[in-house]
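Researcher: Please predict.
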Amino acid sequence: MRRIGIIGLGGIGSIVAPFLARHLNYGLAGGWTIVLVDGDSYEERNGRRQLFSALGGKAEVQVRDLAPRFTGVDFLAIPEFVTEENAGEVVREGDTVFLGVDNHRTRKVVSGRCERLDNVTLISGGNELTDGNVQVFMRRGGKDITPPLTHLHPEIANAPKVALGTAPGCPALAEQGQTQLLLTNLGAAYLMLVAFYAIETGGKPPFDEAYFDIMTGETRSVNRSGERN
């Protein structure tokens, strides 16, 4: 049984989940488990850009939505935020992980956990209002195939160790006048799924990092494996 984790089930993760489940259910051989991870709950205001059928805990709601529709895939809910204390249980040897969170602290924790594994694939997406990026971190046989999320990203590498809930996430930023768009979330989710498909079918990621802008239609990918000392 192969495990795929989706950490963060907001604007990006709630889009990734049903499309990934459909792809695994109908497009690939059986034996998949999707682990849905989020300690937050869906609220009415989330409806403008997050996909869900009911209010309540995000991980549990997604399992209830997806399991009856995609019976060839197993689903597991972990209704928790990822921390240094539980990262070892959430991300395991051989996993593929889709990371769609809205804070650098969690990105640092998950990337650090992946750096301690021999074989793992981490696909992380994030965005601002109209642009965003997707990073792919792969390890095979205890060696980095692509750089970790912290490489050339000091905002992740130097993320402060703050108490959960005190770092500004999407709700806090919205109150400050910064908002998210469904279309930008969709752009990040699309590139994350494209990267997964390329890895599953060709054995290697199409990029280490890709940038996109929905206002210009531009997508630019880079490979940075040779840039590290």
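Model: The two ends are 36 Å apart (CA to CA).
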